[in-house]
């Protein structure tokens, strides 16, 4: 894969902090405004594989859309995986942010400076 990519919502302070740190470290990266350039189901699956997480692990359950969908009541098992992924693709605001794909093809949810540095060191 190669090359870092960061999925951001520009309104999110943790996303802005991550970008500031990437710039300070002189990182070469691409910005993905995932609310405008919405990832499809296959892309979400690929990112989950890189993160080593399940879809509910990267779902923002406090968002209005999560409440409307009743996500808190959804089962979290292999059978429900597609349902969660469809919800994330249909409502990208539900995707936890920022997500950084590291140069080695792995990914991290970079909500702290430590997590950003972890992605940089990979």
Automatic annotation (TrEMBL):
The protein's matches in PANTHER family, at most eight in alphabetical order, are given as: ARSENATE REDUCTASE (PTHR30041:SF4)
What is the protein's name according to its record? Arsenate reductase family protein
What protein family is recorded? Belongs to the ArsC family.
UniProt xrefs under Gene3D superfamilies: Glutaredoxin
Which keywords does this Swiss-Prot/TrEMBL entry list?
A: Oxidoreductase
Species of the source: Streptomyces phaeolivaceus
A Pfam family found in this protein is ArsC
Keyword Transport belongs to the record: no
GO MF annotation: an example: arsenate reductase (glutaredoxin) activity
